[in-house]
Amino acid sequence: ADAHLAAMERARVLNAYVLETPEQARAMARQADGRIAKGEGGPLNGLPLGVKDLFATEGTRTTACSRILDDFKPPYESTVTSQLFTRDGAVMLGKLNNDEFAMGSSNETSCFGPVLNPWRRQASDAKLVPGGSSGGSASAVAAGLCLGATATDTGGSIRQPAAFTGTVGIKPTYGRCSRWGIVAFASSLDQAGPIARTVRDAAILLRSMAGHDPKDTTSVDRAVPDYEAVVGKSVKGMKIGLPREYRLDGMPAEIEKLWSQGADWLKAAGAELVEVSLPHTKYALPAYYIVAPAEASSNLARYDGVRYGARAAGNNIVEMYENTRAIGFGAEVRRRIMIGTYVLSAGYYDAYYLRAQKVRTLIKKDFEDCYAAGVDAILTPATPSAAFGIGEKAGSDPIEMYLNDIFTVTANMAGLPGISVPAGKDAQGLPLGLQLIGRPFDEETLLSLGAIIE
Ligand code: GLN
């Protein structure tokens, strides 16, 4: 823990942590040492981890990187963090930066300012984004400011930043990790998962984060496998699908090359590669950007200046609500609330929200058909490009930014597990990731395959 706390101090320029908790960390580390000396304690005893600021931590400021939560100190702990720290003995180093309410793909919407990617293009000082929304988690892991970090993924927020920073990120099946105590963005899409340096580390962390929780009604009661045990396991005979529809027009040559390189590695390890079709892929992004804002607008209704964090003045209660929300929410969050309330409003509900839900069912069915035909996992690029520059896509057209999620949103729409593993570099020396999407509750296959590629 001490080595990581020192590294955090040296790397403050990255803006990865929004809160450092050194005293707490040292106390937790001492307790872990005590347990180790007595031969007791959990599987993560003493391991220093960072926590995305979307996870409620009891008595420790939790903001979702939004002004509206101000210095909210939750009186409760999220299930995932309580399993990591209280049950399994890990040490919390602090809270990590993210896009405001996890809305974004570059970590530029945080009220604490952008996070920098520790990677740079060759012979260039240009500052790059770490991806988002779990940009602080990815940057901190890549820069060695923690051994691993918690993250969340609603449309790619674990996998895309992992790809941009050369780290491993796994979004488990919807229902695998409890959402209890995680600030809600889009409840039917949100899932927690780890970002780590290696597939093995990700497997170890996922085992501690996963598991049934009666406090989350969508949490699934299934035994949590020993994920670490499958890392290094043979993938001989596995059938890997390469979806035709992910071969986008204008896809950079280096992404295409990486993709076929990844396929070759899996083939060399004994897997069988087959072309598959996921015909509704092109509707995934537009449908996601209806479903996610719709749920967000509903979830964010609770921030009214009464129950949590910030409160602005007003001459009456309506004015107080309006002023609080105007001051408290950033531009991207306000945009999502407006889109969300619009697509849910009477008269538009059928045309947008209901239609998007139908599309979602079709996307899910595309995957089901593939898996029913014997495919074990699907291999795709994780992102359409390497990390881009700070400010490069955060301009006036939000669609530019949304397009970054093109390969990742499908897994959330279908509730399926997805992993991003570092697989190579672009011409500028920046990391690129490949994604594997699996059958429901089959994170193990993804970890076995990911270990071949990394
Ligand atoms: N970039 C996507 C969005 O802005 C996904 C974010 C996420 O997964 N939390 O909605």
TrEMBL record:
The keyword Electron transport does not apply. GO terms for cellular component: glutamyl-tRNA(Gln) amidotransferase complex. It holds the Pfam family Amidase. PROSITE patterns: AMIDASES (PS00571). The active site is at K52 (charge relay system), S133 (charge relay system), S157 (acyl-ester intermediate). One of its GO terms (molecular function) is transferase activity. It comes from the Bacteria. SUPFAM superfamilies: Amidase signature (AS) enzymes (SSF75304). Keywords: ATP-binding, Ligase, Nucleotide-binding, Protein biosynthesis, Transferase. It catalyses: L-glutamyl-tRNA(Gln) + L-glutamine + ATP + H2O = L-glutaminyl-tRNA(Gln) + L-glutamate + ADP + phosphate + H(+). InterPro entries: Amidase (IPR000120), Amidase_CS (IPR020556), Amidase_dom (IPR023631), AS_sf (IPR036928), GatA (IPR004412). Gene3D superfamilies: Amidase signature (AS) domain. One of its GO terms (biological process) is translation. Residues 5-447 form the Amidase domain. The keyword Metal-binding does not apply. Its EC number is 6.3.5.7. Heterotrimer of A, B and C subunits. Belongs to the amidase family. GatA subfamily. Allows the formation of correctly charged Gln-tRNA(Gln) through the transamidation of misacylated Glu-tRNA(Gln) in organisms which lack glutaminyl-tRNA synthetase. The reaction takes place in the presence of glutamine and ATP through an activated gamma-phospho-Glu-tRNA(Gln). This is Glutamyl-tRNA(Gln) amidotransferase subunit A.
